[in-house]
Amino acid sequence: MNWITNYVRPRINSIFSRREVPENLWHKCSECGTMLFHRELSDNQNVCTNCDHHMHITPRDRFAALFDGGIFTEVTVPEPIADPLKFRDQKKYPDRMKAAQKKTDEKEAMLVVSGEIGRTPIIAAAQDFSFMAGSMGMYVGNAIIAAAEEAVKLGRPLVLFSAAGGARMQEGILSLMQMPRTTVAVQMLKEANLPYIVVLTHPTTGGVTASYAMLGDVHISEPNALICFAGPRVIEQTIREKLPEGFQRAEYLLDHGMLDRVIPRTQMRQELVTIIRMLMGLPPQVVGDLPAPSEGETAALDAPDAAQPAPSDG
Q1: Whole-prediction pTM value?
Q2: Are the C-beta atoms of 249 and 223 separated by less than 8 Å?
Q3: What local confidence, expressed as pLDDT, does residue 232 receive?
C-alpha cells in the first residue's frame, strides 16, 4: 500500500478543496453590514435582527405573515391592453414586462387578495417594487378598482400596501389617468362606509403618493420609509438649499402630521387588526379559544348542589 498516495494526498485534497455553499444562505444587511442567515431573516419578515432595517419583501411573503395561517385567496384583476403605445426605449415594452415577470415570478406590480387577519375578513392589495419599481400602470389601476369593488361587494375594509417609483413611463398619459381612476375607487369605499387603510412602505413616490397612497382613512408607515412626490435630490437641485435631516422619511412626516402611525413590520399585523376592528365597530379580537371541557368536567358542572358537602355549623 502506498500510504502517500492513498492517505496523505486525499486528506490534503479534502482539506484544501473548495466547498460549494449556496449563495442564498446568507444575506448582508445594506444598513449595518450584518450577515443574516436566510431562515432567521425570513422568520423576522425581512427585518434585520441587528439594526431593525426593513428590507424589501414581496407581496406574497408579506401576505403569508399577515393573514391567519398564511391563507389568502387572489382576487381576479381585469387585463389591460398590452403595450398600447408600442413604446420602445433601449428595449421594447413587452420585453421589459417579460423580464420583470421572469425576475419576480408575478404577472404585474400589484397583487390583490382576500382573507382574514385576527379572524377579521379584509381585502388587501400590495405593490411589488421589484417589478419595474412598482410603477403605476393600467394594471395597477385595474387592480385597485377590482379591490375596491370586491371590498364593497363583501362589505370588507381595504388595506393597501404601497411601494412605487411613480407612474409607468412606458404607458405615458394612460398611466397618469390611473390617478383619477383610483381616486374614484377610493370614493366608492367612503360612500359604502368602509375603512380604507394605507400602509406606506419604502419607497412610495411620484403619482402614487399624489393619488391613492395618501387618500386613506388611516395612514401607517414602516420605519424610515421614503414617502414623497419628488425625491430629495430633485428638490435640493431645484431650490439650491440643503434639506433638513430625515426630510421625507416616515418619522419626519409623522412629526409634521402627514402620517398617523409608524409601525415596525413585525408589529403591523396586530396594529391593523386593532384599527380595523375599531373602525368597523367590532368587539375586541379573539386571540384564542379555550379547549372544550371533557365529559367528566361537564358532568361535574351539571351535578346538583346537593352533591356538594354541606357547610359545618361551627
Answers
A1: 0.84
A2: no
A3: 87
How high is the pLDDT of residue 86? 93
Q: Calculate ∠ Cα 158-104-57, nearest 5°.
A: 55
Q: What is the pLDDT of residue 231?
A: 86
Block residue for cell numbers 423580464: 99
Give the Cα separation of 138 and 213 in Å (integer). 16
Place of cell 414602516: 222
- One DSSP character per residue, 279-290 reads HTTPPPP---PP
Contact between residue 113 and residue 119 where contact means Cβ atoms under 8 Å apart: no
- Residue carrying C-alpha cell 397612497: 213
User: What is the distance between the alpha carbons of residues 73 and 68, in angstroms, rounded to a whole number?
Assistant: 12
Beta carbons within 8 Å of 220's beta carbon, 6+ residues apart: 197, 198, 199, 200, 259, 260, 261, 262, 263, 268, 271, 272
Q: For residues 141 and 61, what is the distance between their CA atoms, to the nearest angstrom?
A: 22
DSSP 3-state assignment of 250?
helix
Q: How far is CA 243 from CA 98, 235, 246, in A?
A: 39, 8, 8
The DSSP 8-state label assigned to residue 260 in this structure reads: S
Residue type, 82: A
Residue-level pLDDT at 24: 72
Of the CA atoms within 13 Å of residue 243, those in its CB half-sphere come to 16
CA 145, 150, 154: angle at the middle one, nearest 5? Answer: 150
The pLDDT tens digits of the residues spanning 246-278 come to 899 999 999 999 999 999 999 999 999 999 999
Burial call 105-138: b when 16+ CB within 10 Å, e when fewer: ebebbbbbbbbebbebbbbbbbbbbbbbbbbbbb
| Residue ranges, the chain, pLDDT below 70 | 1-23, 299-314
